[in-house]
Amino acid sequence: MDIINLIYRDVTIIYITLGIVLLAASSSIVGSFFMFEKKSLVGDAIAHSMLPGLCLGFLFIGNKNPIYLISGAFITGFISMILIDFISSNSKLKIETSTSICLSIFFGMGILLLSITQNSGTANQAGLQHFLFGKAASLLMNDVINICILSSFIILCVILFFKEFRLITFDKVFAKTIGFPVKVLTFILNFLIILSITIGVQSVGVVLMSAMLITPAAGARFWTNNLYKMIFIAANFAIFSGIFGAFVSYTINQMPTGPCIVVFMSILAFFSFLFSPYKGIIKVFWKRYTYKIRIEKENILKFFYEVGINNKDFNHIISFKNIKTNFSFISNNKLQRRLNTLVKSGFLYYLGSKRWKLTESGKHMGAYILKLHCLWEAYLTKYLNIKPCHVHEDAESIEHILTPELEQELISLVGKEFPDSEFYDKNR
User: What angle do CA 47, 53, 56 make, to 5 degrees?
Assistant: First the structure.
């Protein structure tokens, strides 16, 4: 509480936090478009390429005038983007290779110029090293005002050109076909991206500024497929990270702002990667696991039904040993659990002494699964001209993912109607 009261008494901290929040929001918004264009590494190269521009701006004027520093950073960042596009377009090198080349060259030049500047003995050079990792405490009120103005300008431009940016991001050919000025719109979007990186190098640093562009968008991508919603979520991730990053940087001595903000962004991104109910890694693994279990249970039912066909008796009793012979790839414990689940679902009767037989519901389900298998075999043989001796394994893997719509389509092609389809859809 004492820290919070101290922050409220210090109006400068509130202004700085506001500037960082606007910077984070604007960067994440334009970074969403950059991520969908698969240019995440280009943003990293641009950020690193701004270091020599900062040093040249200082050497040119002899002091840390923000206008010259930002102008120099913007120019070298823009040159690096042009070089990346030029090298990748006019040579056999891919964009990843040209990005790595430009990043290494420009950042190496920046470190060299920074070392020369720091060893020059000029009193005004103190503080230039903060541009590597950022330091919000070094921001003056004029810097904060400039950040707020330029960030608001970026957000406003995205709002005005949102439809156009969305179109050229996902389908430039179609945009050009219907008469959109693709080159002009691409230039505006690139300009906004370079501008967002430029205004953030003082508070976040050239090393970590690319994370401000991509990390919130990457985390938000796991929550939705809608671009509007994704940008909104990314902006909120960035705002949250900006507030807490500025707070930690202010309360802990010698703690740079950039790493704090990026750490909070990374935490939110990794949380999204793992726990998102839409595309999270845990959700994906759980779906694969449950799908695998469903396939195993359906294959067991199909095996029971095939045994009944071969013996002409669907009340035929099957022992665990016979089941294990056909499902040797499943461990005994797993196989026992699958059989117990089928008993609880009403598809099998357990007769004791590790023996089972089909119930009436199990007969319906087993019949339908086998018919789906035959339907796929007929389709692969008739329309894909695959030899009958080669279609069994393919049909074995496809039969479990048949949707009702696809089933009707296959029935219309092959000409086989299966009466148990409604029962299968209800119990699968």
Answer: 155
